[in-house]
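Researcher: Please translate sequence to structure tokens.
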Amino acid sequence: MNKFTLSLIFLNSLFVSIGTANAQSLINNHRNSDIEIERKTPNVDEILQQLKLPHSKIAVIDENQQVKQQNFVWVFKDLKEVGKQPFLQVNKETEKPKTKPESKSPKEDELEDFAEVTKDTQKLEGIFTIYRHKHKNKIYLEIRPEQLKKNFLANSTLESGIGEKGIYSGMPLQDFLFYFQKIDNQIQFVVRNVNFRTREGDPQAKSVARSFSDSVLYTIPIKSIHSERKTIIIDLGDLLLTDLAGLATNLELAASPEQAYLGNAKVFPSNLELEAIFNFANAGKNSDVLPDSRGFTLKVHYSLSELPKSKYQPRLADERVGYFLTAYQDLSKDERRDPFVRYINRWNLEKQDPTAAISPPKKPIVFWIDNAVPLEYRDAIKEGVLMWNQAFLKAGFQDAIQVQQMPDNATWDSADIRYNTIRWINTVDGFFAMGPSRVNPLTGEILDADILIDGSFVRLLKNDYRQMIQPQNLQTRTSLSALVNNGRLCGKGNQKSPKSLGNLSKLATDYDLCYGIEASNQLAFGSLAMSMLGNSPPNPAQLKDYIHQYLRLIITHEVGHTLGLRHNFRGSNLVSPEEMNNPEITRTKGLTASVMDYIPPNIAPDGVKQGDYFPNKVGPYDEWAIQYGYTPSQATTTLGEKSFLATIAGQSHQRELSYSPDEDLSNSDPTVNPWDHSGNVLVYSQSQLANARRMWERLNEGYTIDEESSSDVEERFNTILGNYLQNLYYTSKYIGGQSFYRVKPNDTKGQIPFVQVPVEQQRQALMTMQKYVFAEDALKFPPELLNKLVPSRWLHWGTEIQVGRLDYPIHDLVLLVQTAVLRDLLANDRLTRIKDLELKSESGKSLTLPELFDTLQSEIWSEVLQPQGKLQISSLRRGLQREYLNVLMEMVLRKESVPEDARTLAWYKLKQLNSKLKRVNSEDEYTQAFLLETRDRIEKTLNAPLVGN
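Model: Translation complete:
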């Protein structure tokens, strides 16, 4: 074997972090081989010049444990062999960009004179001292030496918007835990990395600082340094007139730097409040709300504040109780596999009298009602806020929450971090409510909260289902779940319009953005049901009370978010359908288990006296969750509370305390839904489907409201249709369904995580689908009604005119609904789950694939399988039957991914159907042609060569 020399060059005999490890491995592996290894310490520059070998910089650690950059090179006999080594790569030489060298920072004595910088300025003192020069439109920030490297909070809020596309007044933007850092004659704005921590005294703290970087967002030149007190002056415009809040990045629009300026500035002992005004070029994008689409102005409110100085004790989270979290990795925690520490987000409430069972708090949570809220809604908002005091009593606090009215002449802004506000905004496309809070990212302590309510909630009792029946949507095959879920929720990936809230606001993803357009639809359906199911239209007082109840619920829900609570979409499953309209029960026990669900109007079945439309008290889950988060314990440390908290969380097995947030929403759990109702969703949905049919009948009977336009009939038809689809969706989830519960492995109450829907309920759900979707008369409407469905013909800004076909596409609409349900029932995930549930259930206690296929075929092809009299298949039935064939043929021809047993059953059902088709005939030409074509399609499919495995 030929010998060669491998020269390992160690720079200054220092330890090379990567190269040495690889080199040592190579030495050990070839210690007994014919390779001669030579260790050298020559002059680096000479070697590089002599060899002309590509080289690079590498981080090295010297004897003082300091990281430095050094030249580093591997030397081989043949450079072609280098790339073949998996751990040795020679970097290719690249041309350096031809850029101007960075100018060096000026020496400290070359900075501007402090007195000159602050000359002719107004001095304001507080947490920071600022100097405002009104003529130059400059604000200078003075930083004391002891404020360097100190943690502060920066919060940004969109103070003014444009009212559309997510650019809404009051939207929270970015939050930072930051510090100022001096580098030469510059100040850096640095975001602290709090995701990785160590316990006090752990030597790994030094490693954490080296391993996980903070984020330097901006470097700002120092204007001057005071000669005596050594305070530093910077121009705040260099920080706040940048894209610190992320507007340009998320809107993908460019602000005009020369037109940006700072507005109002106020300084207080613990916080600094400032405004920055930006002018944006809209690049000619169309807007209905701007006077000229080429540009608009936005105002951003910034709050810079200190971290609170309190004895707040963080509280550990439990996944059975729904709180927003502050989580980090504890690198000192090596005794467990899970390195995360999770704190719940909550306010710092302390009793005035710690020995009393119930005591007022030392510092209550105070909400201020925005002075822009219409007068007629202020009482409902106040009631919604104070409703939570019922829950805090269970935690030992009296009057924990208070409400104040913001004066019309208030000198403070709603975005001021010192005030918790309920802000009223107006949009043309928002229809949302939001209850975000700002927290200390180190502990989870809630410091500030501002609730946003879009006035369009109650201003526009209209629906948005017309878009569903547009021609381009009717031609698209879809499933029921996709059809219903599209646009129903805001946040968590749903209802994302271009440049919408999810893009603009970081907090919109960190917190549950609520309601959305579906809330407006639900409100519209409830008001319509009040009118059409009663003996007479509601009077103004009844409508006012209805809106009052709804607005009160929205506020209660959003306040729950500001208290730290997340959504609980099992919260509506409390009382039975029979109890829902009994005020003696709903006003004592409650209408729902939690107001943190999305609660639709409670519409009584036909013939039942109407009860409360919406809850008038928080539910048992809400009380229990507040107990977990706020009941004081006797423990003096966070870890010392574990057994105390485990006792409370251990009650989660109780049905009314079950918790399911956004991420637990699925197509398989019929008990977890937004906008469902009652402890038996299946029975309740059947009553609502019957209500919808009755409302369509009333619409055809000439139901009218004064001053209605010709398009109102179609809008009401679509409103009813949207509710109809939702209840079909809730019903479908029972078929092959299973419920998921959050339980601990050592739970002694016998609860298990997954529970199959009883087979009797699955069969009942299938019968409901047959009656309200697949039956001959399921979606059959009188011709008179169909000819009244007229679209709006207004053409101006803020409207969308329908062009092309103007009459209602009833065939396409009915087929869309039937196709959506059918494809949902025969979707791969449902079929796979049904097959798996056969193994997860006792024998005979599960719905099987053969039963599902047989039930569907028997109903959809009932005229052929059980012919009665002269056979004449209607056009609506032919459309459904064609779609059924399409689904089964796609399975047989392997165009759809389904379990093999399902594919075999599809083949078998086609075989059976073809046999029946040969025995029937019809005198109706439509039916004759359809039956012959169907037989031909089936036979070609059964005889087709197989594709794939």
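Researcher: Any highlights?
Model: The chain has a mean pLDDT of 84.
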